[in-house]
Amino acid sequence: MNIKNRITDLLGIGYPIIQAGMVWVSGWKLASAVSNCGGLGLIGSGSMKIDLLREHIQKCKNATSNPFGVNIPLLRGDADEIVKTVLEENVKIVFTSAGHPGKYIDKLKSNGVIVVHVVSSVKQALKAESVGCDAVVGEGVEAGGHNGIDEITTFCLIPQIVDALKIPVIAAGGIADGRGILAALSLGAEGVQIGTRFAATVESSAHYNYKRKVIEAKDNDTVLILKKIGMARMIKNNFTQLVEQEEKNGADENRLRELLGNKRERAGIFEGNENEGMLEAGQGVGLIHEILPVKDLFTKLITEYNKAKQSICNSTA
Q1: Does an H or E element contain 136, and which?
Q2: Do residue 57 and residue 134 come from a single domain?
Q3: Nearest residue to 265 (alpha-carbon basis) of 185, 316, 206
Q4: CA distance 200 to 303
Q5: φ, ψ for residue 86 (rounded to 5)?
Q6: Per residue of the chain (317 residues), what is the pLDDT tens digit?
Q7: Which of the residues 138, 180, 259, 309 could staple to 161 if both were Cys, CB 3.0 to 4.6 A apart?
Q8: Taking a C-beta distance cutoff of 8 angstroms, is the pair 68, 46 a contact?
Q9: At 192, phi and psi to the nearest 5?
Q10: Domains in the chain, number
């Protein structure tokens, strides 16, 4: 893989591969390992209190001399403090999600921060571009965790966003191997953001039980639930079955929030409660068969990409 484009130039990275900033998964160990391989590692601030976030940023700085960033869910009640901490720690790359991209754009840009916003529709992408974001991540409904209500697939979403925007586009959702990277770039994306595949690595903060469930999962082992309060994709278990039944019975938002509680993600991903916790994962789980160190995974992704590209070149020669 020898790719130099607007995303590699913008982020200062060797490969257009970004590791998603996932809650309870993306700590400094994972982010620094990805950055050390030439991709972009992201610290997931969504599951961190401010002091812990600061600690992870500082440890990441000590573990890599390459660029890394922080993912900020804008709907968090302490988003102001997260932004303040990121600026105080001189982080120069921020990926924002789950909220209006213009809320902190002026503050971030005035401090020399590159801002990339996660979107799930062309309308959201145009809004991100209009307020000054440097790039967008177009995330299809195949992705793990919270998804857009329109349920647009990556294959359909990415070329439409590419056609509509002048700024570069990063593809996300269902990308778990080198073939997926090649496909995303063929659709016009200039980079990929990969979540679940990086969640099942040695350096991931996730519990071993979660990683094991990811590598055991097959093509139809994820489900979209909680559509009334913030649709999320996760691996099927006792909790998803309960929610699905409640939704079929007409459960309202209050009932669904009661079922969700406030620690389901932590229980499933970080503590390893594989039956009652939220095991957020994308539809690419069926392509993930082993827990690898990030360095080995990078080698595998690049080898797969090159092999797929050569195969296409041979078939069209």
Answers
A1: strand 135-139
A2: yes
A3: 206
A4: 19
A5: -60, -40
A6: 778 999 999 999 999 999 999 999 999 999 999 999 999 999 999 999 999 999 999 999 999 999 999 999 998 889 999 999 999 999 999 999 988 989 999 999 999 999 999 999 999 999 999 999 999 999 999 999 988 889 999 999 999 999 999 999 999 999 999 999 999 999 999 999 999 999 999 999 999 999 999 999 999 999 999 988 888 999 999 999 999 999 999 999 999 999 888 789 999 999 999 999 999 999 999 999 999 999 999 999 999 999 999 999 887 65
A7: 138
A8: no
A9: -130, 145
A10: 2
- The sign one gets for the Cα dihedral 266, 240, 96, 7 is positive
Residue 239, both tokens: 């909790």
Helix then strand then coil, % of the chain, to nearest 5: 45, 15, 40
Residue 20 domain boundaries: 6-206+287-316
The residues, ordered by sequence, that sit 6+ positions from 77 with a Cβ below 8 Å of its Cβ are none
Residue 127 burial (10 A CB sphere; 0-12, 13-18, 19+): middle
Could you tell me the CATH number of the domain that includes residue 305?
3.20.20.70
